[in-house]
Recover the amino acids of this structure.
């Protein structure tokens, strides 16, 4: 079991650095946009193989899939085989511990893994982790592996389960979220391939869309500092006082 002392020690060097989140807020509120953050900037933290390196992945990775959906209401054919192992966490300390688990765990294909805070008001779970899988069989197997690791290193009371693809799809097409090992309940649209080809030919996506370095092996810890500090301030905003374990007792202002 990862102790609170261990998790504090593991992130102490980064978390004791000066505040950079204030600079991000000022940048977002500036009227003059003559500079911007790197395209790799994210409030999520990723580990494992970059999504763009997965077999048959679109050239723009997950960003291209979401763009296709947001612009044309199309669920990409690639996403029909996308499943995730979802870890539902109760405190920000558990989120940091899960990141430690994701750092050390060995998976068959070094599957993409990410940790994040949940900002959508529709979700009752404040912190989440995901492991990306191709196909239901792989998802069920990794759910077992991740579940055992989470129970051993964090808590046996944490929920670990399989979900299908992105939640945004299910908001429009509820049947997409149905996990069915037999006949598919959700069908690919009749004209959707046309839109897929159109976007693939005409939309331009940055090389950095998936927040990874060029070799796809992870991100710079200094870049991740934004995410780590945001997680703590988000916890303070929610009234999750477990963040004090990570700050060494230092109180943080809630997010504006």
């Amino acid at each position: 079991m990862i102790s609170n002392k261990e998790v504090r020690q593991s992130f102490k060097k980064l978390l004791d650095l000066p505040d950079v989140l204030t600079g991000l807020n000022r940048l977002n509120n500036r009227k003059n946009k003559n500079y911007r953050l790197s395209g790799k900037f994210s409030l999520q933290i990723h580990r494992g193989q970059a999504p763009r390196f997965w077999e048959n992945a679109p050239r723009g990775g997950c960003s291209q899939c979401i763009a296709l959906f947001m612009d044309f209401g199309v669920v990409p054919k690639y996403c029909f085989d996308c499943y995730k192992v979802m870890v539902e966490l109760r405190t920000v300390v558990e989120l940091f511990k899960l990141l430690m688990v994701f750092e050390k765990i060995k998976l068959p294909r070094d599957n993409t893994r990410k940790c994040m805070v949940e900002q959508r008001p529709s979700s009752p779970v404040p912190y989440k982790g995901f492991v990306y899988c191709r196909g239901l069989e792989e998802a069920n197997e990794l759910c077992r592996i991740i579940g055992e690791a989470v129970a051993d290193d964090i808590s046996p009371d944490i929920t670990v389960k399989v979900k299908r693809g992105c939640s945004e799809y299910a908001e429009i097409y509820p049947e997409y979220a149905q996990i069915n090992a037999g006949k598919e309940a959700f069908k690919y649209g009749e004209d959707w391939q046309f839109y897929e080809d159109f976007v693939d030919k005409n939309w331009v996506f940055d090389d950095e869309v998936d927040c990874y370095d060029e070799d796809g092996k992870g991100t710079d810890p200094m870049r991740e500092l934004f995410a780590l500090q945001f997680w703590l301030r988000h916890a303070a905003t929610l009234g999750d006082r477990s963040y004090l374990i990570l700050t060494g007792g230092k109180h943080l202002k809630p997010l504006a």
In short: The two ends are 35 Å apart (CA to CA). The first strand starts at residue 45 and ends at 47. The chain has a mean pLDDT of 90. The beta strands are 45-47, 82-89, 113-117, 127-134, 159-164.
